[in-house]
Amino acid sequence: MAQPVSPLLGRRVVILAAGAGSRLLDVEPLKPLAKVGGEPLIRHALHAMAAAGVERVTLVLGNSADAIAAAAAVGPMPVDTIFNPRWADAPNGVSVLAARDHIVPGTLLMMADHLISAQLVARLLAGARLPLALGVDRRLGHPWVDEADVTRVRTDADRIRAIGKGLNVYDAHDCGVFVVGPELVQALDSLTNPGLSDGVMQLARRGFAQAVDIGDAPWLDVDDARALAIARTDWIADWIAA
Question: Is the pLDDT of residue 130 over 70?
Fold first, then answer.
């Protein structure tokens, strides 16, 4: 069922930045602080959200919380921080639960290690109409995507039917940016030690999870050395051109 458009749609974002960033440790000790074009990833996220009209930011921290909070503090807008004490041993759904009091209908949710464009956010917000909406990329085979590690999505028109890294049948990639509300918190609360995709599946089974096609809007999951190299070459070239 569709939900009424919230007056807060797109004005708040929760950014998950609590993890260890283990796949990038050989080249960068703190993934959210890895620099691309002279700016750390966390500030790229903040600038993209500010350009899309976001006014309030909640940053969920864990590993090296003080250093990441300090970098975010010189971003384009004020940032509230929350510490997830289970950052080292729990999936990312637990970080979402740590921010439960900051999640209202129409809240954006993203990962700190994703480079995104304001265009992607605008398209997601324009299409969001269910309690959870996920930006998806249907351009399978895009050279920026790590096909072996990307979270895969199977859809039926604009409904999410399955999500996970191990899907064999899929037609889209998870871009790492959502519009969510209290329904996601409730879904995660019903599970033990949940990952974010587990909560999405709970809502998908009820028909409450939507896939919004982001078209050609650029995004990049900076999860390993290969992706960081792409970020520092191809992404920056596109960013400067724009």
Answer: yes
In sequence order, what are the residues at sequence separation of 6 or more whose Cβ sits closer than 8 angstroms to the Cβ of residue 121?
10, 48, 49, 52, 54, 108, 177
Cβ(209)–Cβ(159) under 8 Å?
yes
pLDDT recorded at residue 240: 47
Q: Which domain holds residue 74?
A: 12-241
Is 58 contained in some domain? yes
Helix (H) or strand (E) holding 189: helix 182-189
Q: Return the CATH number at 149.
A: 3.90.550.10
pTM, 2 dp: 0.94
- 79-83 and 56-61: which strand pairing? parallel
Burial (CB count within 10 angstroms: exposed 0-12, middle 13-18, buried 19+), residue 157: exposed
Asked whether residue 75 is assigned to any structural domain, the reply reads: yes
Residue 81: predicted pLDDT: 97
- Structural domains of the chain, count: 1
Token pair belonging to 109: 């949710």
User: Is 6 among the domain residues?
Assistant: no
Average pLDDT over residues 154-163: 98
